[in-house]
Design a protein that fits this description.
mainly beta, 7-stranded mixed β-sheet, 4-stranded antiparallel β-sheet
């Protein structure tokens, strides 16, 4: 099993920046891809960015060029640097880890961290 602990959310003005962190613990050797998703009030959870074990990133169209995902495998931590934040980025941000020691693979989720961008 894997536990995910997120940190770094908060309130920021439009145009500002925040950095989210997600530290994984437990059977971290079984983690493959990691990523960030977000859910705004009244909306479905959506992909923000993912990163493979080999550091290959993937971004949603809405954040590409503004957000950067990275991971430190030695610390079992994934980061999301968010720049040029806009009010539409307001959401609860969830960390995700793909656990591949189960067949089929299983998704673990963090508890979520609130990001609020004021105009």
């Amino acid at each position: 099993q894997v536990q995910l602990a997120e940190s770094g959310g908060g309130l920021v003005q439009a145009g500002g920046s925040l950095r989210l962190s997600c530290a994984a613990s437990g059977d971290t050797d079984c983690i493959s891809d990691m990523g960030w998703y977000r859910q705004a009030p009244g909306k479905e959870r959506e992909l923000v960015a993912t990163i493979t074990n080999g550091d290959r990133p993937n971004y949603s169209r809405s954040v590409k060029g503004r957000f950067t995902i990275s991971r430190d495998n030695a610390k079992n931590t994934v980061y999301l640097q968010m720049n040029s934040l806009q009010p539409e980025d307001t959401a609860v941000y969830y960390c995700n880890a793909e656990y591949v020691c189960y067949v089929p693979a299983y998704d673990y989720w963090g508890q979520g961290t609130q990001v609020t961008v004021s105009s």
